[in-house]
Amino acid sequence: MLLYLVQVLGDAIPGLNALRYITSRTGAAVLLALFLTFMFGPRLISLLRVRQGKGQPIREDGPEGHFAKRGTPTMGGLMILASVLITTLLLADLLNPYVWMVLFVLIGFGTIGFYDDYLKVTKQSSAGFSGKVRLALEFAIALFAVWVFTRLEAPELAGRLAVPFFKDILIDLGWLYYVFGAVVIVGAANAVNLTDGLDGLAIVPVMIAAASFALIVYLVGHKVFADYLQIHYVRGVGEMAIIAGAIVGAGLGFLWYNAPPAQIFMGDTGSLALGGALGALAVAAKHELVLAIIGGLFVLEAISVIVQVVSFKLTGKRVFRMAPLHHHFEKKGWKEETIVIRFWIIAVVLALIGLATLKLR
């Protein structure tokens, strides 16, 4: 929205022309989303605390330390989504279809998560609505987004999978690419959701991944830089850096309230939305496999759950003391703060490895 104001008044107001550039608007998005989160935060927390009463239900079979968190409100993802949405509408190019599709995924998955949180709070149960229905809705949203992304791509890229570390390899998946892309988006959403189990654990790795993809989509969408780095150029995706920047800023603001001891939890409202948005950024930028590296922490958490379930069903034995992985370390006696900070370190290292794929080809 402000971009159109810049086009009209840019020459008349000194410094306003800086907002013509994606890099400037991405930086502005970080600051604006941070400010909006600080502005919304206290009021939203007070409102949710009153409306929810007992707050997010705590699993009776969970780590003992979590019982002290009873009464903490959930749905904190609302402040993140509101900040990202307002910031994007103000700073992004609203004629860019990639922007709208990522927002579609963000809001769509956020709505699913909100309904799930609503059921958990009203029923005071850790179980939301049917897992099968939830997955079906998520795949419907993801498949539509992938279909649109594919239509926006150049013919030589449509339906093809780029391989990290190799500049010329494009695997033609044909119609299977729609399924693969949807799995990436849905998988990212649910992996972030599984990671969101300790104060501050999920939001920092999300910010790290979002910052990484802000750089990736900018480079992929810039013809000169893409040619220099020998990565596949995708016209128009650079504008999504504004959304990624907004996620970073809103995440920072949310962390202010989510830092131990948390005043509010993100809930499925935030975790599903943010994970889905990261997946959408990766699919649009043709960096789906790089997301598995940068978001490797989320992958590990999801794999730990899969391994635990499969092992128990086949052998009746558990591999981990409790899944997801962070609960395993809690059961081993690690302090919550130790787990969170060590997982943050892992997220930083994985992000650096993922970003290295841009140059090592």
Please specify the SSE layout and strand pairing.
Layout: H1 2-9, H2 22-52, H3 77-91, H4 97-123, H5 131-152, E1 160-162, E2 170-172, H6 176-195, H7 203-220, H8 223-229, H9 241-258, H10 267-284, H11 288-294, H12 296-315, H13 325-331, H14 336-356
Antiparallel strand pairs: 1-2
Features:
two-stranded antiparallel sheet, mainly alpha, 361 residues, globular, single chain
Structure description:
There is one protein chain. This protein is mostly helical. The protein has one domain (28-356). 66% of the residues lie in helices and 2% in strands. The protein is built from 14 helices and 2 strands; from the N terminus they run αααααββααααααααα. It has helices spanning 2-9, 22-52, 77-91, 97-123, 131-152, 176-195, 203-220, 223-229, 241-258, 267-284, 288-294, 296-315, 325-331, 336-356; strands at 160-162, 170-172. A two-stranded antiparallel sheet has the order 1-2. A hairpin with a 7-residue loop joins β1 (160-162) and β2 (170-172). The longest helix is centred in the first third of the chain and has 31 residues, at 22-52. The protein is globular and about 55 Å long. The relative contact order is 0.15. The mean pLDDT is 89.
